[in-house]
Amino acid sequence: MRGPDPDLLHPMQIYRPATFLRPLAKGRDNVEVGPYSYYDDQDGKGDFFTRNVRYHYEFIGDRLVIGPFVAIAYGTQILMNGGTHAMDGFSTFPFNIFGNGWEEGFDPATWDAVNRGDTVIGPDVWIGTEAVLMPGVTIGAGAIIAARSIVTRDVRPYALIAGNPAREVRRRYDDETVERLLAVAWWDWPVDKLTRNLNAIRGSDIAALEAAE
C-alpha cells in the first residue's frame, strides 16, 4: 500500500470537499505546492487559488509556497502583496491604478517598500478555520494556526499560535525535540518508507522516528 495519489483532486470517496491542492496549482508559475497538502473546500468550487489566495498577481513576482502534508481548513485566506498600498505618503489610496492622468508622477519605489516577499507555509502545518495569513509570512514546519487567527509575522516550527494578531501560545515540543524532528524531516521520505512508518510518524517517540528504515 502506498497511500492516495497526490495528484488526485478529490482523494476521499466519503468526503468530497477534501481537495488536494497540487493538481489545482499546475500551470501557476507563482505557486508551489507539495504532495498531499489539502483544503477543505466545503463550497465545492475548486477555486482555492482565486478565492482563498487573494491579490496574487504574476506581474508582482511574489510566490506562494505550500509544503507537503499541509492541512488548510475551510475559509482560510492567504493575502499576497498585490493587496498592499504605499504608506509613506499622507494618503494610502492607490490613485495610479485608475489611470486617466492619476498615474502621472507615481514612484513604484514607494510600493516596493511595503512588498514583504514570498509567503511560505512549511510542511505538516495545520491552519484552522477562517485563519488569515498576511503577505510575506513564513510558517515553520509542524506549526498549528488556531481558527480565525490573523498571522502577521513569521511562525517558529512546531509553534501553536492564536489570536488577532496571532501570538505564540506555546511550542508543541522542547527545542531539542524540534531540532531532531526537523533533522528527520519525515515529509521528505519516499512514500514507501513513509507508509511503513506511519505509526512512528503518528506517535510521540522521537527515537522511534529516528530509527525508521
State the main characteristics.
213 residues; four-stranded parallel β-sheet; 2 domains
Description:
The structure is a single chain. The protein has 2 domains: 18-172, UDP N-Acetylglucosamine Acyltransferase, domain 1 (3 Solenoid), CATH 2.160.10; 174-213, no CATH class. By secondary structure, it is an alpha/beta fold. The longest helix is centred in the C-terminal third of the chain and has 10 residues, at 175-184. The protein is built from 7 helices and 15 strands. The strands form 3 sheets. It has a 7-stranded mixed beta sheet. It has a 4-stranded parallel beta sheet with strand order 2-5-8-11, with no helix packed on it. It has a 4-stranded parallel beta sheet with strand order 4-7-10-13. The chain has helices at residues 22-25, 48-51, 108-112, 175-184, 191-196, 198-202, 206-210, and strands spanning 18-20, 31-33, 38-40, 53-54, 64-66, 71-72, 77-79, 119-121, 126-127, 132-133, 138-139, 144-145, 150-151, 159-163, 166-171. The two termini are 16 Å apart.
Helical segment tally?
7
**Element pattern in H and E:** EHEEHEEEEHEEEEEEEEHHHH
The counted number of beta strands is 15
CATH C-level class of the largest domain: Mainly Beta
- What shape does the CA trace take? globular
Assembly classification: single chain
Percent strand equals 15-25%
Which homologous superfamily in CATH is the superfamily of the largest domain? Hexapeptide repeat proteins
CATH topology of the largest domain: UDP N-Acetylglucosamine Acyltransferase, domain 1
* Class based on secondary structure composition and strand pairing: alpha/beta
Report the biggest beta sheet as strand number plus sense, adding barrel if it closes: 7 strands, mixed
